């Protein structure tokens, strides 16, 4: 069946100076033929044509626009593409989309269908496509950098190289399955075992880091401490607005409240939690339980306390459990004497005042340094999705099952399944059910 030509608005719908409508498919040039006076027999690829757009039926002027043509396979989708750069008024866009719908074999694109066609036409693999989606969603500079790395093929090259090594092992095994009278030389056995062993170690090392997911989703920083320590006040100071309620009444914060921050390009989810204390209030108890769960899942913990009332000893149990990712934060520096501040610093506390903002910028400078230390040299091929992690674990499980002590057919199957698991990440096998899920999350015009 002939594949239909698709079209979609690739920019945000609404009032704007310029909007872009993208058309892809073997009949894409029919859009120029139907809506302009340009002779499509003379049109040159990658040239911009300033022209008047006309309605298909009545030939009334619709807009003045730039029209560009990208010929297959030298286009984003690998198909013929026409881009119309018109004015971004709702009237123009509605009229233009309506006229495109009236062209034979044209239809509105489904979410992610342009990128899906690019994948099927081998213009990108799945990791590159998901890198593109991440770039569109990026809100910080570091997210942008990571998305661009993934779009450039960093993950694709790594996983494809691992898969190629497994396919080479698989080819050896298949050869000896086809010729069972031949004994496998010890040198071949040793070479294949070494290849599998090295791959297992490389994958284990790759799986250890969660930095990629944190860069994509945000580093989780939890504010915890007793009631009235100033957690909500600190949140409001950071945001420079009253985002959460501040009150002297203990138990005011009863739920975990997330705020999203850009700390020098790093995405951070800062969570304000209920004050930790004994309470008979059922709702407050639930908030305290949520706070404890957030603490356990946190990448970094700011243990905040009112230094004019409490000492860091109140966090002794928390320090024992989270000594590698906790920072003691002494609030209300405006109420402390110089001697008290020296004593707190000697106990490893960071001192600030949420009220006067003293020390608040320095606290988040310190957080930036800790994030950078956490990332370390892990700035290349990073796992950015749980899907990758699951496939890598499946691969590792099959490699762990591989040995030459069982029938060679079973050993070959272990390697085949391991290679297949890696192929699921990049899309080097037929996995339509995975493709629909991935590309369905894209916006319509992508």
What do the pLDDT scores average to? Answer: 87
Shape annotation: flat
**Strands ordered across the widest β-sheet:** 3-4-5-2-1-6
Number of domains: 3
- How many β-strand stretches? 12
Structural class: alpha/beta
- Catalogue the unreliable spans: 245-254
Radius of gyration from the CA trace? 29 Å
What are the key terms here?
Gyrase A, domain 2; 16 helices; 3 domains; 46% helix; six-stranded mixed beta sheet; 446 residues; Rossmann fold
Task: Report what the structure shows.
- This protein has three domains: 5-109, Gyrase A, domain 2 (2-Layer Sandwich); 127-209 and 383-439, Four Helix Bundle (Hemerythrin (Met), subunit A) (Up-down Bundle), CATH 1.20.120; 215-375, P-loop containing nucleotide triphosphate hydrolases (Rossmann fold, 3-Layer(aba) Sandwich), CATH 3.40.50.300.
- The model is unreliable at 245-254 (pLDDT under 50).
- It has 16 helices and twelve strands.
- It has 446 residues and is of the alpha/beta class.
- It is 46% helix and 17% strand.
- The strands form two sheets. It has a six-stranded mixed β-sheet with strand order 3-4-5-2-1-6.
- A hairpin with a 6-residue loop joins strand 3 (48-54) and strand 4.
- Helix 7 runs antiparallel to helix 14 and helix 14 (386-401) packs antiparallel against helix 15.
- 36% of the residues are buried.
- It is flat and about 85 Å long.
- The longest helix is centred in the middle third of the chain and has 25 residues, at 154-178.
